[in-house]
């Protein structure tokens, strides 16, 4: 009898690895462990902060594969985790609302200022859950000409799809009480009154100009301040 030659047959599954995956594919992943990893977001680092050119502004992205930064969370302690960054430089002073509404994870929002995109930065404001659900929201007076760096990361290293919204906010109206000392000239006077004039360099007082006058009651005169500055700072009486 002659020697018979049988064809070499690879049976289905004989060259399969874990969970039915082809062994060559598994070997490729083992040889190139970085192949299956997603790239970090384009604004992963402070130096690569996306520029917010005008308002209103909305950006949808992710913080998946984002890396930690060395800056401390504004006002809450701890380090900023898997953060993504933006930079906004308003032309003029403006009230601005910045929020992460539309994000699908527990966000943290932090605002810093600084001359350049390098650490250390100055803390401006921070928030965890002031927005809808577990999103974040900050309304802040921003000074024209300053660089504001906005960081979004996840509470407890949470990750997901990030939405950042930035828009001008209505100018708040605040009421402040201005007290002024006065002297009693008549020995029998029981409820003396004096006129108080309140002047604010850049705000509207009592719906008129930047200055208004009224009589005190019990030594106090109440004024309504609209516009800058917040809570009557820099106003004089």
Write the layout of secondary structure elements.
Elements: H1 23-31, E1 50-52, E2 57-62, E3 84-88, E4 94-99, E5 107-113, E6 122-127, E7 137-142, E8 148-154, E9 161-168, E10 173-179, E11 195-199, E12 203-205, E13 211-215, E14 220-227
Parallel strand pairs: 1-3
Antiparallel strand pairs: 2-9, 3-8, 4-7, 4-9, 5-6, 5-8, 10-14, 11-13, 12-14
Helix content: under 10%
* Overall outline: elongated
**How big is the Rg?**
31 Å
**Structure summary, number of beta strands:** 14
> What structural class do you assign from the helix and strand content?
mainly beta
Oligomeric grouping of the chains: single chain
Order of helices and strands: HEEEEEEEEEEEEEE
Order of strands, main sheet, comes to 1-3-8-5-6
Strand content: 25-35%
Spatial separation of the terminal alpha carbons = 121 Å
Overall mean pLDDT: 78
Biggest sheet features: 5 strands, mixed
Count of DSSP helices? 1
Low-confidence stretches: 1-32, 182-190
What does this structure look like?
There is one protein chain. The chain is built from one helix and 14 strands; from the N terminus they run αββββββββββββββ. It has one helix at 23-31; strands spanning 50-52, 57-62, 84-88, 94-99, 107-113, 122-127, 137-142, 148-154, 161-168, 173-179, 195-199, 203-205, 211-215, 220-227. It has a five-stranded mixed β-sheet with strand order 1-3-8-5-6, with no helix packed on it. A four-stranded antiparallel β-sheet has the order 2-9-4-7, with no helix packed on it. It is elongated, with a radius of gyration of 31 Å.
